[in-house]
Amino acid sequence: MTTDLLVATSGLDAQRVQGAVPPACRRPPVQLEPPEIDDARGEAMLSVPAWAPRAPALHLLPTFAALADADWSARFEMSVRDAGQWSPWAGAASLGPVAFDPMPAASGALAADVDVFVARHPVEAVRLRLRLRAADVRALLAAPWLLTLSAAGPQEGGSPAAARSRAPAGARLSVPTLSQMSEDPAIALRVCSPASVAMVMGFWGQSVGITTMAAEIYHASLDRYGVWPAAIRAAARRGVAGYLLRFPDWAAAAWCLDQGFPVIASIRYEAGELTDAAIPATTGHLIVLTGYEDGTVLVNDPAAPTPATVARRYHLDELTRAWLHHSGVGYVLFPP
User: Fold this and answer.
1) pLDDT tens for residues 160-193?
2) Of the candidates 125, 152, 179, which is a domain's last residue?
3) Which of 26, 189, 192, 293 is deepest in the core (most CB within 10 A)?
4) In which domain, by residue range, is 142 found?
């Protein structure tokens, strides 16, 4: 599978941003046109012109990180080119407290599923719009920000032996351990994403509790704590930049760990598929990858019953199946 990461940024060191992206996914930064601003509505539109990934894409995952503590709302809107024709625009779920005017979530060639756009078959080019709203949208755009789009082709799988062959050395990052099970029982089983983000924020020197992070990440209209771009939004409001990536293979994840970047991985597995897992099975769970060595992956699994049992080792081949052979989505957070 080929994954490209489109990057557009303002007010950030472009080399620093590029240096946080695996080389296999790195593309030259994209220049955007000046934003369209409607002061009366407190709304702005950022537009990415037609952009073609290196290989036709199926899985399209945008995110926006504004390094400002101001509250803001956003909606991603996308059109794709298929056989030379541009599809109608489709819109993802709104982020933040403001709901935007309704628009279709599907457009024939493209459908938005909460936080990710999925093409019906591989498409050759993409157009992306970001609709923003804030009390002072000009001030928001004056702050440093990062807009990204992960564009991935069809899943090609890959053997466990190949995964092991690409990870002969090792890395170990000292990420603080937090257990979601220590939280209010009403939400404890639902806050793996806020718990994972809180651990990585602690790694970068920003101490924040799971409950506080959960309140920021929570998507009220969907009643979810696991909307991926909402996690990036919450981290950025505390000064930590980030992006979402559908990782193409284990080598890209190992590169991040080698460079000192923990990876928050979205995994799924059946009973018996992940040895010594904190929970026996899951249809969707977030963990923090903190290193690797000798055919194992070092992780912080927030579903462990206590902070002392959060740090764990999972077999590389089993983790690869649970992560890369399903969504393959990871959050990468880094100081700008």
Assistant:
1) 444 444 555 789 999 999 999 999 999 999 999 9
2) 152
3) 192
4) 3-152
